[in-house]
Amino acid sequence: MVLKLQSMFSALNEDAITNLHGAFGVKRVSVKEGDSVTLDSGLTEMKDDDVIQWRFGNEYTLIAEINVTANRITVYDDVLDGRFRDRLKVDHQTGSLTITNTRTEHTGHYELQTNSVIKSFTLSVFVSVTEGDSVTLNSHLTEMKDDDVIQWMFKNTLIAEISKRLNKITVYDDVLDGRFRDRLKLDNQTGSLTITNTTTEHAGHYELQTNSVIKSFTLIVIVKISVKEGDSVTLNSDLTEIKEVDKILWMFKNTLIAEINKRADRITVYNGVLDGRFRDRLKLDKQTGSLTITNITTEHDGDYRLKINSMRKRFSLTVYGELNTFNYLGPSLCFFLH
């Protein structure tokens, strides 16, 4: 299939390749729940005869459109049970779509359709928590019905459930080596799940299953680390060894700074990015994928992201300077307030 696509591209002109890239290339975008996100159309301006449509989900439900000829912008607030109500904004110059106050139910596939191009986006809305804090995964149900059964799954393992008919709440403490023991609380009115005293073991994919709906959540647990300027710090992957299929990416904010491709047996450190602030300072452990930063400066203060296939980890690194102390050996001066 790859060979066929390569030969097809070689026979097309540059404009055709651009259009095909727009049709088949999927841009991945992530946003923290509650924040806003913009899906960029890539257009600088719209033509007089343009009709732009934004669609969502596997059914390609129309959620917004611009008709330039009619000078009309339409947002379809009531579709999909109103999940986008009062949340969509369309830029009348470029057609870009902004979603405000995002919720996990906005996760999914978006498609921009114009007269000349199709662009695809995959949006992931994640929930984040600082390690050690509590976090609630909201069902967004106002109340449960009498026949409701709610189940919470973590990576395909059942960890908690409510049977309204039996008036019973069950938490499965012993699964997954007991990582959730004494940490799970279920709201018996809404079915929302609270995880207390979070650790990085709790990061990952959660699924809420009810009689009528399935909702997915991605939880990111942020590890806070403080280090003194000039020292070294290691951001741990928590892996004992890297598997053959693993690809490990380390990002500083949104910039790739290092990666390991196990299959290709290749370690790459990007020394030149960000004005070279990481030059000769990064070391990757080829066994575990952990990242060490040496000779830290305040330029290295910020958010780091680790991607291992579908797994995500985040670190918030704070770099502090050494307080200067001065010894003054002159006479003492005292002030007294009367």
From TrEMBL:
Q: Which domain of life is it from?
A: Eukaryota
Name the Gene3D superfamilies on file. Immunoglobulins (2.60.40.10)
Chain ranges of the Immunoglobulin domain: 26-126, 127-222, 223-320
What Pfam families is this protein classified in? V-set
The record's PANTHER family line, in alphabetical order, gives: CD48 ANTIGEN-RELATED, LFA-3
Q: What is this protein called?
A: Immunoglobulin domain-containing protein
Biological source species: Anabarilius grahami (Kanglang fish)
